[in-house]
Write a sequence for this structure.
């Protein structure tokens, strides 16, 4: 037998239809990433921003009065997946928001996550996003070295700064 058995860890939490649920979902996601040792050498802030955006979309567009949404976080060693389930109708998509103040949530998710999508459920839908986990970057961070991906990113940003 040459197959590798892959174990996955998962956490979930229910949030009520309340404005305090978005920061609570973000806090839950952060605590989970800390417990799974995915805060150093990983795109933790990208994950947290996506969780905030998906949670906000669920509250604004997908959660009927008297209901809530559920956040699932799953990690299998290679991919971190965040899913927000709600019971509302409709299929979310990226819209051209123009100069308006809203409508950019899924655009941010699409830009930050490696993959994202929408799955049907009865009732409602699940909107999800995935992030590839580079084990060597997480290991480098645990050893105290600046991960190569962050080093490259920092060098690229440095080129944008004005010269003295």
């Amino acid at each position: 037998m040459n197959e590798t058995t892959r174990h996955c860890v998962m956490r979930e939490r229910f949030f009520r239809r309340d404005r305090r649920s978005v920061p609570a979902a973000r806090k839950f996601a952060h605590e989970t990433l800390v417990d799974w040792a995915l805060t150093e050498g990983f795109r933790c802030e990208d994950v947290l921003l996506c969780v905030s955006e998906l949670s906000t979309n669920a509250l604004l567009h997908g959660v009927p009065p008297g209901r809530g949404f559920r956040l699932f976080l799953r990690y299998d060693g290679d991919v971190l997946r965040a899913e927000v389930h709600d019971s509302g109708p409709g299929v979310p998509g990226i819209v051209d928001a123009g100069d308006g103040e809203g409508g950019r949530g899924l655009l941010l998710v699409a830009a930050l996550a490696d993959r994202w999508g929408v799955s049907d459920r009865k009732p409602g839908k699940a909107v999800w996003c995935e992030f590839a986990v580079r084990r060597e970057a997480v290991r480098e961070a645990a050893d105290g070295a600046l991960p190569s991906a962050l080093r490259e990113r920092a060098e690229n940003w440095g080129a944008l700064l004005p010269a003295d």
Observations:
- The mean pLDDT is 82.
